[in-house]
Write a sequence for this structure.
C-alpha cells in the first residue's frame, strides 16, 4: 500500500467524446492520488457528469486513456475494456454515488441487504458476518441499526443518500465517483451529510472525484478543484487557489456569484 | 531538518524576482500589478516583519508565499528535507506536502470547517502529520490553556466566539504543528494586552527554537518585540 501512494490511482489522458457534431468532452487530462479529493465544478452542460460516467464505464469515450490502478491487475486502461473484463478487473475498487440515491440503491432489498450485496458479490459467504458488517456500516452513516430490515423507500432522502454511501464504501474501494451527492437535500440535511463524507474520506484515505455546482461543498471537501466549461477543463489548482485567486473569466464569474465562501 | 538549514546557512524561505498581479475580467480585464521584483530571504531563527503602508500588498505577499495566490513569475524556494521546493512550479500535491510539514500560515481571520469543535480544529494539523487523535488533542489543550481560552469553549465550534477568541484559536492551530517556517498576518490585532503578550512570547519561543518567521504587524510595541529585521514592501502605482 505504501508504494501505491506514489502512484496515481487514476490518470486520464486526452479524453474526448462527441454526440454527432457536438463535442461534449475535449482534451480532458487529470490525475488523482490515494487520499485526494478532486472537485469538478461548472455549469449544467459543461460535461462534468459525462466525464464521471466515462470514468465509470457508463459512457464509452471516443478517444483517450483512462488509466486506473486496480488492486488485482495494476494499471489498466478502462477505456479499452469490455463490460465483463471491466467488472473482473475493477471488482469493488471503484464506487459511484448517484445524485438520486434511488439510482444507486436496490429498492427491492432491505437496508441491510443493500450494504450486504456488494460484500456477497465480493465473495463473502458468511451470512452472520455480512449482517454484522452491514450493521456496523449503518452506524457509521448514522442510521439506527434497528432499521436494518426496512426497505430504503421508508427512509428520508438524507438517509437514503447515507445508505447509498455505505453501499459504496463497504467494500473499501480505491476510488469513489460522486455526482452531486448533496444535491436535492435540505440545507441542514446537506450539512450533516457533508460532515459525514468529510470524516469517511479522511478515515478511509479515499480518492474521490466529486461533481458539484456548489462551491461551498467544494471548499469543504476538496483538496483540488477543476473548473469545466463547454466540455473543457479551463482552470485547475488547489481548491483555495482557484476560489481565492480565480484566473479565468468564467471562474471569476462563478466565484463572484456566491455570497460568501 | 532545522539543524541542517542552520548548518548550511541557506535561507528557509527565499523569493527571487517574485511578481503578482490580478486581472479582473468583469471590469474590462483591468489589471493590477501588486507585487514585482520581490527578492526576500528569511533564515531559521529570524523574524522578518514586513514594512509598508496599507494596500502595499503585504497580505498578498504572504498569501502568494503560501501558494494561496498564484504568482505571475519568479520563484518561491522553500527548504524541505534539505532541498529547495519552488512553490511557483510545484504540483498541487507538492504544495500540500509543503503546507503540511514545513510552511505554516496564520491568517488574519479564522476560516474553518463549520460545526467542528475548537479543540479538533486546533489538533487537525497534527493529525495530518500522522499524530494520534488523543495525543493531538492533548497538545491542542496545552496550546488553548496557554492562550487562556476558557475550558468551556473547547468542545464548541468557534463560529460564535469573539474576534479575540477566534484569533487565539487561529494562533494555536497555526503553531501546533511546529512548522519550520511561519507566515503570520496580524497575529495580535484583536487581542487585549495580556493575550497579546502571550502571543508575542509564543512567537519569540518559536523563533528562538529555530523557526523562520515572516510577519505582518502594525502595532508598534509588538513590531519592536518581534522583529529581528524589517523588509520593505513599497506601495506600487497600481496600473499594469
Amino acid at each position: 500500500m505504501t508504494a501505491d501512494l506514489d502512484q496515481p490511482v487514476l490518470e486520464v489522458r486526452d479524453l474526448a467524446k462527441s454526440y454527432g457534431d457536438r463535442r461534449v468532452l475535449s482534451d480532458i487530462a487529470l490525475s488523482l492520488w490515494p487520499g485526494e479529493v478532486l472537485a469538478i465544478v461548472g455549469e449544467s452542460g459543461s460535461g462534468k457528469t459525462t466525464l464521471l460516467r466515462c470514468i465509470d464505464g457508463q459512457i464509452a469515450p471516443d478517444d483517450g486513456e483512462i488509466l486506473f490502478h486496480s488492486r488485482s491487475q495494476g494499471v489498466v486502461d478502462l477505456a479499452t475494456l469490455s463490460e465483463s473484463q471491466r467488472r473482473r478487473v475493477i471488482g469493488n475498487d471503484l464506487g459511484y454515488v448517484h445524485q438520486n440515491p434511488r439510482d444507486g440503491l436496490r429498492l427491492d432489498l432491505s437496508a441491510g441487504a443493500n450494504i450486504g450485496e456488494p460484500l456477497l458479490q465480493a465473495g463473502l459467504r458468511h451470512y452472520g458476518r455480512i449482517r454484522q458488517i452491514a450493521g456496523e456500516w449503518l452506524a457509521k452513516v448514522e442510521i439506527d441499526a434497528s432499521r436494518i430490515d426496512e426497505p430504503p423507500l421508508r427512509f428520508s432522502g438524507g438517509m437514503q443518500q447515507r445508505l447509498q454511501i455505505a453501499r459504496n464504501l463497504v467494500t473499501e474501494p480505491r476510488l469513489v465517483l460522486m455526482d452531486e451527492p448533496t444535491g436535492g437535500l435540505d440545507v441542514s440535511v446537506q450539512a450533516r451529510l457533508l460532515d459525514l463524507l468529510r470524516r469517511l474520506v479522511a478515515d478511509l484515505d479515499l480518492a474521490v472525484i466529486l461533481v458539484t455546482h456548489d462551491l461551498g461543498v467544494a471548499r469543504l471537501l476538496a483538496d483540488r478543484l477543476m473548473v469545466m466549461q463547454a466540455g473543457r477543463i479551463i482552470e485547475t489548482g488547489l481548491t483555495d487557489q482557484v476560489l481565492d485567486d480565480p484566473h479565468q473569466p468564467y471562474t471569476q464569474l462563478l466565484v463572484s456569484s456566491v455570497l460568501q465562501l | 531538518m532545522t539543524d541542517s538549514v542552520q548548518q548550511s546557512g541557506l535561507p528557509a524561505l527565499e523569493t527571487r524576482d517574485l511578481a503578482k498581479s490580478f486581472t479582473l475580467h468583469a471590469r474590462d480585464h483591468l489589471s493590477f500589478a501588486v507585487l514585482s521584483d520581490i527578492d526576500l530571504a528569511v533564515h531559521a531563527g529570524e523574524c522578518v516583519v514586513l514594512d509598508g503602508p496599507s494596500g502595499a500588498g503585504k497580505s498578498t505577499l504572504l498569501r502568494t508565499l503560501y501558494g494561496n495566490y498564484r504568482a505571475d513569475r519568479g520563484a518561491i524556494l522553500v527548504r524541505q528535507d534539505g532541498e529547495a521546493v519552488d512553490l511557483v512550479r510545484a504540483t498541487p500535491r507538492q504544495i500540500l506536502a509543503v503546507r503540511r510539514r514545513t510552511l505554516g500560515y496564520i491568517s488574519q481571520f479564522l476560516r474553518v470547517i463549520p460545526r467542528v469543535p475548537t479543540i479538533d480544529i486546533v489538533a487537525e494539523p497534527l493529525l495530518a502529520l500522522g499524530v494520534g487523535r488523543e495525543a493531538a488533542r492533548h497538545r491542542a489543550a496545552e496550546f488553548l490553556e496557554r492562550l487562556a481560552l476558557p475550558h468551556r469553549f473547547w468542545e464548541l465550534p468557534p463560529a460564535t466566539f469573539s474576534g479575540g477568541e477566534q484569533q487565539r484559536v487561529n494562533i494555536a492551530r497555526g503553531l501546533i504543528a511546529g512548522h519550520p517556517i511561519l507566515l503570520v498576518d496580524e497575529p495580535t490585532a484583536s487581542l487585549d494586552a495580556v493575550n497579546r503578550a502571550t502571543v508575542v512570547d509564543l512567537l519569540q519561543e518559536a523563533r528562538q527554537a529555530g523557526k523562520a518567521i515572516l510577519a505582518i504587524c502594525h502595532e508598534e510595541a509588538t513590531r519592536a518585540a518581534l522583529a529581528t529585521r524589517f523588509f520593505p514592501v513599497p506601495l506600487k502605482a497600481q496600473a499594469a
Observations:
- The two ends of chain B are 41 Å apart (CA to CA).
- Chain B has a mean pLDDT of 92.
- Strands of chain B lie at 13-24, 30-42, 47-51, 73-80, 83-86, 103-106, 181-185, 212-216, 229-232.
